[in-house]
Amino acid sequence: MQTLKAIIFDVDGTLANTEETHRQAFNIAFEEFGLQYHWSVEDYTSLLSISGGRERILTFLKSQDHDIKSDISLRNFALRLHKRKSEIYREKLVAGHIGLRNGVRRLINEAHAKHIRIGIATATSRANVETLLKYNMGDDALSEFDAIVTSDMVKDKKPSPVVYQFAIAELGLTPDHCIAIEDTSNGNRSALAAGLKTLITTHSFTKDNDFTGASLVVDQLGEPNQPFHVLEGYQGKQTYVNLQLLDGLLGGVYQVDKEPWAESATVCAK
Questions:
Q1: In the annotation, is 67 catalytic?
Q2: Are 80 and 166 part of one and the same domain?
Q3: Residues 12, 146, 183, 247: which is the catalytic one?
Q4: Cis peptide before 159 (omega within 30 of 0)
Q5: How far is CA 76 from each of CA 43, 55, 224, rounded to the nearest angstrom?
Q6: Helix (H) or strand (E) holding 29
Q7: What is the dihedral of CA 195, 200, 203, 206, to 10 degrees?
Q8: Catalytic residue from among 10, 146, 183, 247
Q9: How many Cα atoms within 13 Å fall on the side-chain side of residue 117?
Q10: Which tops the pLDDT comparison, 57 or 263?
Q11: DSSP letter string over 156-190?
Q12: Average pLDDT over every residue of 112-126
């Protein structure tokens, strides 16, 4: 019996390795605004604990000495700075053509073939999502997703569960039939709080995050000839993320405390 009915993806760091491009865009925006700030890789890794680019900027600015004293003025400045940063980021996406992460396109294709719904739940903007998808999947890319929930639609950022709750509602399903694919601690906590099980694909900015509660943590989705490396959890005999593995995670087949014979349990994802 099929358990899996939908896969909900985060975007930045999950669909594509975009975090370094975001970091560069922040630094260019700082320079354009005449600010003597530069976020190193170490700085940005730490700042990723704050979900949302505007919130990241605002939190950072509040910790610095500057001439802007009014809270309202600071928020307005952060908004303008973030708007320009987002424009720079999208320009870089178009110019550099950042590809999807390993296994993403394959998994989406497998889901379509089996009538598994696909959703997005992200703290980034709709414009950023559209640019990334169209330059990787074509002009009709948005039609491949049954629900796209972005920062334009929800106020509360991850680890709040709101973005996932919206996505689940738009998909017309219940959490027990959906799985979230994430890359950060905040994303994992957000999905879990919405009642979802999670699969984590790490990268250089998040490999040391706390992923307590995740069903499986791997370094990539993988391909048949490019296996993932399991960091936490149990995947049975699976070597890359496919519908069978996701369905098994939802159904409890792939659990650390399972006996070896459980690997032969029947898992359907039709």
A1: no
A2: no
A3: 12
A4: yes
A5: 23, 12, 49
A6: helix 19-32
A7: 40
A8: 10
A9: 21
A10: 57
A11: SPTTSSHHHHHHHHHHT--GGGEEEEE-SHHHHHH
A12: 97
| Domain of residue 84, residue span | 19-96
Q: Is 12 a catalytic residue?
A: yes
Cα–Cα distance measured from residue 223 to residue 63, given in angstroms and rounded to the nearest whole number: 43
Residue 175 is assigned to a structural domain of this protein = yes
The percent helix, strand, coil of the chain (3-state, each to 5) is: 45, 15, 45
What average pLDDT score do residues 120-146 get? Answer: 96
Total domain count, the chain: 2
- Report d(CA 69, CA 103) in Å as an integer: 47
Query: In the structure encoding, which two tokens stand for residue 171, read together?
Result: 């998909």
- Cα–Cα separations (whole angstroms), residue 247 to 75, 176, 242: 44, 11, 9
- Span 50-59, average pLDDT: 93
CATH of the domain at 55: 1.10.150.240
Per-residue pLDDT of 212-232, as tens digits, reads 999 999 999 999 999 999 999
* Per-residue model confidence (pLDDT) at position 268: 37
Task: Determine the Cα–Cα distance for residues 39 and 61; give it in Å rounded to an integer.
Answer: 12
Residues in the chain: 270
More confident residue, 155 or 115: 115
Q: What is the DSSP letter of 139?
A: T
Structure tokens at 215: 């069903």
Entry pTM: 0.91
Does any domain span residue 269?
no
Q: What is the pLDDT of residue 2?
A: 63
Q: Which residues pair with 216 in a beta bridge?
A: 199, 233
In this structure, is residue 203 part of a structural domain?
yes
> What is the average pLDDT score of the chain?
92
For residue 255, name the pLDDT band (cuts at 50, 70, 90): confident
Indicate whether 82 pLDDT > 60.
Answer: yes
Locate 141 and state its tokens.
């890319």
Sign for the CA dihedral angle at 73, 68, 152, 82 comes to: positive
pLDDT at 244: 97
